[in-house]
Specification:
Structural class: mainly alpha
Number of strands: 0
CATH superfamily: Cytochrome c-like domain
Order of helices and strands: HHHHH
Helix content: 25-40%
Strand content: under 5%
Largest sheet: none
């Protein structure tokens, strides 16, 4: 009888501890804690969950999320009217590492402050004239950045002539 009472007392503590460690293990890297190496890459993934290339492709064409098609030609035939303001993304996965792609999605302005590409994972409080509903928010979540990076890594073929 005494053993059952002891176990009953320990169970809530064990569950609470497991919950604490589970949430601590999946914490995203905050925008302010992103580490850029050699002014060219972000080697550390922003989440513990690997990026999903299929979700990244969906985000790339989503007009309220990545909206990559607005500025880049991409190997996505079912969507017409690709923009040509930015470089083509054909072959980008063969030309850049995941760490280099991550920096470009997080904040391309680190590489070129005159670029019009938005910083997708920077707190809006570092930007000017932000609508109230977007204050203290990023355009993409850490997981969405990782999903887009995973998708961009699949783009290894160069654009056919």
């Amino acid at each position: 009888m005494l053993k059952q009472k002891s176990l009953a007392k320990l169970l809530p503590l064990t569950v609470a501890a497991a919950g604490f460690f589970a949430t601590a293990a999946v914490a995203d890297v905050a925008p302010s804690d992103v580490v850029i190496v050699d002014d060219n890459e972000i080697p550390q993934a922003l989440t513990d969950t690997a990026g999903d290339a299929a979700k990244g492709r969906e985000l790339a064409v989503n007009r309220k999320k990545g909206n990559c098609l607005a500025c880049h030609v991409m190997p996505i035939d079912e969507h017409g009217f690709h923009g040509e303001v930015g470089p083509s993304l054909w072959g980008v996965g063969g030309n850049y590492s995941a760490a280099e792609l991550r920096l470009r999605v997080v904040n391309y302005k680190v590489l070129n402050e005159d670029v019009i590409m938005p910083a997708f994972y920077v707190n809006s409080n570092k930007m000017h004239r932000v609508l109230k509903k977007f204050e203290d928010k990023t355009l993409l979540s850490a997981q969405e950045v990782e999903d887009i990076v995973a998708y961009l890594q699949t783009l290894t073929e160069e654009q056919p002539d």
